[in-house]
Amino acid sequence: MAHEIVPAAEEILDQAFPVLDHGFVRLVDYCGGDQRIVQAARVSYGAGTKSYRQDRGLIHYLYRNLHTSPFEQVSLTFHAKMPIFVARQWVRHRTARLNEISGRYSVMKDEFYQPRGDVIAPQAQDNKQGRSAQGFSEEEQQEIQEALAREQGRSYQAYQDLLSQDVARELARINLPLSTYTEWYWQIDLHNLFHFLALRLDSHAQYEIRAYAEVLLDLTSRVCPLATEAFREHRLGGVRFSGSEFAALRALLDEAAVTPGQLQEAAGKVGLEGRDAERFVEKVQKGIMR
What was the pLDDT predicted at 196? Predict the structure, then answer.
């Protein structure tokens, strides 16, 4: 298969999509798209299916059944700019290749993340690593923003003072705050990108990194719309049951004497038809996933 050109991806290539106050994400390159996935899957059994509908069905089948290697045939490269504390969460995903700007070689810019008032909140009482859904008053929000800005300004001025004294850049930078913006080029295959997005789009992820994940998901949909559709359907929009949880669900359905016909009817109410409806009934009745 020749190099795949995806028109929707070409339209937005190298465009900066803003995130937070000074950040952005740009898709700078991609290798492959939906067609690369289906061609990789078909290599084991020849030409196979070729229509758009069949391609869509194959991609959904692959993703639903965790056949991940065809998705690894697609890679995307992004240029992203984010606060350092977001970068440190982001880099926990070790399945990508990246190159980050270095404060040892470059003078860091006077750019710091300043959260909007509506995202400033107290520590959550039921979550040690998150913020409460209950925010501060507008007056309190403004006071907090001003305090953050003062400290950011002092830190950057101290940084500039050290540079003016000819202190090495690698030392002068060490007191800069986590709100300082950094940037990098980040390349990742589609399978691992979807895993990253599933975790960072979760409601428990920090707001700031979710903002980047939302833009990454949108850009990914331009490159691989069918694969992204499958990801939304089977990962973002789905849930998993443990063995005990599934047994409890089955016990509940048995107690209510739910019939296959009722399951089919319920499937139809949410738009599941044909084989999709049959698959739903099999999954609920027998725990079979196909």
Answer: 98
Residue 39 to residue 95: CA distance in whole angstroms? 23
CA 213 to chain centre: 4
Crossing angle of helices 260-269 and 274-286, rounded to 10°: 130
- Alpha carbon separation from 108 to 90, 146, 156 (Å, rounded): 20, 22, 9
At position 147, the amino acid (one-letter code) is A
Note the pTM of the prediction, 2 decimals: 0.92
pLDDT in tens, 242-251: 989 888 888 8
Predicted local confidence at residue 84, as pLDDT: 97
Exposed e or buried b for every residue in 212-227, given b needs 16+ CB within 10 A?
Answer: bbbbbbebbbbbbbbb
Instruction: Count H helices and E strands in the chain, helices first.
Output: 12, 5
Contacts with 281 (C-beta within 8 Å, 6 or more apart), sequence order: 260, 263, 264, 267
Choosing from 26, 56, 200, 222, which is the catalytic residue?
200
- The answer to whether 200 is a known catalytic residue is yes
Q: Residue 46's pLDDT is what?
A: 54
* Angstrom distance (rounded) from CA 1 to CA 6: 14
Residue 235's nearest CA partner among 30, 65, 78, 27 is: 65
Question: Which pLDDT score, from 0 to 100, does residue 124 have?
Answer: 85
Which residues, 6+ apart, have CB-to-CB distance to 78 below 8 Å?
Answer: 25, 26, 27, 28, 185, 186, 187, 216, 219
**Cα separation of 144 and 134, whole Å?**
15
Q: Please tell me the predicted confidence (pLDDT) of residue 249.
A: 87
DSSP of 153-180: HHHHHHHHHHHHTT--HHHHGGG--TTB
Could you say which residues of the chain have pLDDT below 70? 1-2, 44-50, 289-290
Tokens 């979760």 belong to residue:
202
